[in-house]
Write a structure and sequence with these properties.
mainly alpha; single chain
Length: 138
Amino acid sequence: MEIGIYLSVLLILFGGVALSVFFKDWKHLESSGSLVVIVGVLITWSDITGNIDQYIYSMKEQANSQLENLNKDKEDGFMSKAAINKMEEFLQNDSDEIQKYLKLRKVRIRRFEAGALIIGTFIWGYGGTIADSIYVFA
């Protein structure tokens, strides 16, 4: 999903530059900046990070349920205590690693949301002026 978002932003910006060169007017680059802002708003509005929080909560609930089942098995004597302890350790470590990964992904998405909004706004406001200072159409 992240790759698709990155590609869409790059495609929008590249399209803005291509249209600007074709029509010899940098206003198309500025307009592409507004489209990047729209992408940033849509990402923020879709609340991907909220979905990650829900997933983390669900994962914790499942891990706790599995640990409770293991404790029942331990009390009933169906499994050896060593095997149950090993499974508990595995569940806890696996759960911690997944949580770390999801928190990192959440941070990356938040940074991308902010980056898309900042870059889009900057290009929308100053793209033509900066592009004119680099290359002026005849």
